[in-house]
Amino acid sequence: MQKGLYKAGYTQNRELSWLRFNERCLEEANDPDVPLLERLTFVSIFSSNLDEFFSVRVGALLGMNAVKPDSVDNKTGWTAAQQLKRIYAAADKLCQRREQVYKDLKKALKREGIYDLTYDECTKEEKIWLRHYFEDNIQPVLGAQIIDPGHPLPPLQSGVVYIAALMKHREKEVMAIAPVPSGLKAIIRLPDKKTVRFVHIGEVILANIDVVFRGAEIKERLRFTITRNAAVDLSSQTDTEDYRVKMIQMLKKRKNMDLVRMEISGTPSPQFAKYLSHDLKMDSSVAYVSEMPLDHSYLWGVPDLLEPEHAKRLKYAPYTPKLSPAFKYNRPLFAQIQKKDVLLSYPYESMDPFLLLVKEAATDPNVLSIRITIYRLAKRARLVDYLCLAAENGKEVTVLIELKARFDEQHNIDYAEKLAESGCNVMYGFEDYKVHSKICLISRKTGSKLQHVVLISTGNFNESSAKLYTDVAYLTANPEIVADSIAFFQNMMSGVLDGKYKRLIVSPVSFKRTIIREIERETRKGKNGRILCKMNAITDEEIIMKLQEASAAGVNINLIIRSISCILPEVPGKTDNLHIRSIVGRYLEHSRVYVFGTGRYEKMYIASADFMTRNTERRVEIGVPILDESIRERLHEYLDLYLRDNVKARVMNNKGELCRIYDNEEEISVQDEMMKRTVGSKEVLQGAVPRPVTKAHTGIVFKTKYEPRRRATRKSAKTKKETDSEKE
Q1: Nearest one of 613, 516, 532 to 566, comparing CA atoms
Q2: Average per-residue pLDDT in the chain?
Q3: Nearest C-alpha neighbor of 614 from the set 545, 539, 563, 702
Q4: Cβ(645)–Cβ(562) under 8 Å?
Q5: End-to-end CA distance of the chain
Q6: Is the CB of residue 582 less than 8 Å from the CB of residue 650?
Q7: Quick one: three-class SS letters along 153-168?
Q8: Phi, psi angle pair for 13, to nearest 5°
Q9: Are 507 and 501 in contact (CB under 8 A)?
Q10: pLDDT category, 723, cuts 50, 70, 90?
Q11: pTM of full prediction above 0.90
């Protein structure tokens, strides 16, 4: 492999690329065309994204800097220390921008009669009311304590907001600390019937901390929250044969990892800063001052304070995923899939047909087995109930549940125990490879004949995220795909990673090899070559190099990338023919679709994997070719909408900046168009038990045929980088 790819001049740093994606979330929060309460949601999304970024990516870089300080990033040539310096600087600018967005949103809320108040902004009467509220509802559950030799600092939890006070207590200067109780509501509505006025619980505790330490002289007070490193090395855990036990040990260790960031509500005095840095062992260089409430999750609760009609006016118009028109819901779904392939497109279409298929299998006396991989699940997952029901009904149910799904580890451990208790055969996968595949195989015996159906998806079997993420799921009874699926589960159960498959492309063996082969095939066609890929991110060095070679050969390459792109587009003499766009909108773009070539020689895949090294080399992933012509055409029409989007789409320039599209075309948003064009049945399923179909289903109607487009938006139309001043 080529060393020092950064010397070629067409790559950028992964972390800074991701920060630009998160900046797009903040742009949505600042967009007056986005409903007001949805703008609040985007502030929360931006903030939670940044929290996870610091805990995972920054945490990993800090670890690398300690162990391998001379190691460099192959995309930029920067050491970990150099990357961290740039990350902290970029994150600081973004946080400052968030502060201004928050101030603007507070003004917009006031115009709607919604007052997001600090304690000082409350009236005298309101402060008296809050004092009583504090004494009656907060103080009894507030774990406030001083910090001294007899009262050592308790373990601080990542993401929890703490109140800190510097005070003179019993003739000594000490620091006191109190976590904001997580079981209480984050915001308190004040008793005003005419308008909606609320204050944050942290503000109330901060203002009334003297009630807890009566007689103490409070010199200074503030709120803070910390972010801990979440990049735990599993190999450092106690050696045990039970992988579930090892994961539990890892979760305990994560609670005490080093701090990577602190956010403070105000600038502490030098004396108070000294206490904080000494007691918390915190480097002041990674401390951020924030005027915005530190618990940004409160933003999700603001609509609950409003009258339903008021809240409705300030949110996106409600959208309910439609039932797929591919099925007749008064007949068994298994038999229908035997006759034709089906594509489900979330969130425009519902996941209910898949759930109904599993429930149908759970109660069908002729179904022998259900096998499924699970990565992330909804908090209340009907899927788990149906799998348990199947096992209790005597079916052989095999569930490969990935315990290393970051931040869902405990959630998956709990579900694994529930599944095992119901009689499911539960596996945890591989220690060094995450099983990120999304596949379900159902086997049924009819007479002497064994039949199978397979579902392979780009997204998780998560009933909640299926309403919020764009994904596609492919249901088929194709004999070759079925045979590969059977082999896949047999390999997983045998601990075999290097299995051979005829149709499926599986990481860590054949996925990357197949993608590179298809890129090389298009490269040989030169200007007649075509590559169109939609994914979440691209970081894999070999794939990046192959795409650059294809671009240099004249291949027309369009990449639709939601977040990280380590390859830069349109670099003169390097990637002139490679174009990148990103879409951030109402739904999280999560589907992966890969198209190589045109016409009869075209190859199209959907997959669980991105073009990231972790997906291609360190995970078990599945991609499946789309063989049904009507489904291929439907996906082409879908992708064409992405290439035509000039509302939520941004095009990347050769500096890695995401630029708004300015053209004279009719405005089109792919997500809005898909909601308009997806027409489903008026039938309502009662749970997962359907009523008889009384009216024919109608499907997705597209106005245009798919044609490869070469809309060079950055060359033929005016584009401009959005700046803070332009947004204002």
Answers
A1: 613
A2: 88
A3: 539
A4: no
A5: 47
A6: yes
A7: CCCCCCCCEEEEEEEE
A8: -70, 135
A9: no
A10: very low
A11: no
pLDDT band at 3 (very low <50, low <70, confident <90, very high): low
Catalytic, 436? Answer: yes
447 φ/ψ sector (left φ>0, alpha ψ -120 to 50, else beta): left
Residue with tokens 């809005």: 672
Interval 520-557: pLDDT, tens: 999 999 999 999 999 999 999 999 999 999 999 999 99
Please count the other Cβ atoms lying within 10 Å of the Cβ belonging to residue 136.
Answer: 9
Lowest mean pLDDT: which of 113-122, 398-407, 671-680? 398-407
Q: Which two tokens stand for residue 634?
A: 């439907």
pLDDT at position 717 is 37
Q: Is the pLDDT of residue 609 over 90?
A: yes
3-state helix, strand, coil in the chain (%, to 5): 40, 20, 40
Give me 396's structure tokens: 């052989």
- With CA atoms as reference, report the closest residue to 457 among 477, 441, 478, 472: 472
DSSP per position, 119-136: GGGS-HHHHHHHHHHIII
Mean pLDDT of the region 681-709: 40
Residue 251's pLDDT is 55
Average pLDDT over residues 150-154: 86
What is the tens place of the pLDDT at every residue in 66-93? 889 999 999 999 999 999 999 999 999 9
Half-sphere exposure at residue 109, Cβ-oriented, CA atoms within 13 angstroms: 24
Omega prior to 569 cis, within 30 of 0: no
How many Å apart are CA 174 and CA 209, to the nearest integer?
A: 14
Q: Residue type at 115?
A: Y
Q: Annotated catalytic residue: which of 169, 200, 296, 436?
A: 436
Angle among Cα 441, 447, 449 to the nearest 5 degrees reads: 50
Of 494, 518, 492, 493, the C-alpha closest to 506 is 492
CA distance 240 to 263: 38
| pLDDT value at 190 more than 80 | yes
Nearest by Cα to 612 from 551, 657, 564: 564
Judged against a pLDDT cut of 70, whether residue 7 lies above it is answered with yes
CA–CA gap between residue 164 and residue 282 (Å, rounded): 14
Q: 362 pLDDT exceeds 60?
A: yes
Contact residues for 213 (Cβ-Cβ < 8 A; gap 6+): 144, 146, 165, 167, 169, 176
Number of Cβ within a 10 Å radius of residue 189:
12
Between CA 226 and CA 287 the distance in angstroms is 9
Are 497 and 432 in contact by the 8 Å Cβ rule? The answer is no
Strands lying side by side in the sheet with 196-200: 114-117, 196-200, 187-189
**CA 45 to CA 665: how far, in whole Å?**
31
H or E stretch at 399: strand 396-401
What is the C-alpha separation between 607 and 510, in angstroms, rounded?
Answer: 13
What was the pLDDT predicted at 16? 97
Amino acid at 393: N
